[in-house]
Amino acid sequence: xxxxxxxxxxxxxxxxxxxxxxxxxxxxxxxxxxxxxxxxxxxxxxxxxxxxxxxxxxxxxxxxxxxxxxxxxxxxxxxxxxxxxxxxxxxxxxxxxxxxxxxxxxxxxxxxxxxxxxxxxxxxxxxxxxxxxxxxxxxxxxxxxxx
Length: 147
Description:
Blueprint: E1 16-19, E2 22-23, E3 27-43, E4 46-63, H1 70-78, E5 85-91, E6 102-111, E7 126-133, E8 138-142
């Protein structure tokens, strides 16, 4: 294997996100993670653990340009509805080894909170959307493989 060089470190500026098939061009940051829920198992004097479930959660932060879906989500919640969405995240830095990309598809996405409005004088604004998902509805579409 060739020596690793600094220019191969992926720059998050190239990250993209699609919400229900629509590119969110004003994305500032994106994080989706799976959390292992564990129970303690005691064996002799050792504490070990047993995987008992998985939980998916994340955050989508966007530059404040649009009201993107806020009114529709609020109106659905007021009716007792719980809309579900899909997200696709992609990383493809021009310096990525072999010009590969990493893409993750996440289905059954629900939003956990909705900030109706916030602002601070002389500050650029961002909206943050916290979400959850079922890990069984997440998968890697592409990965960046070792060359």
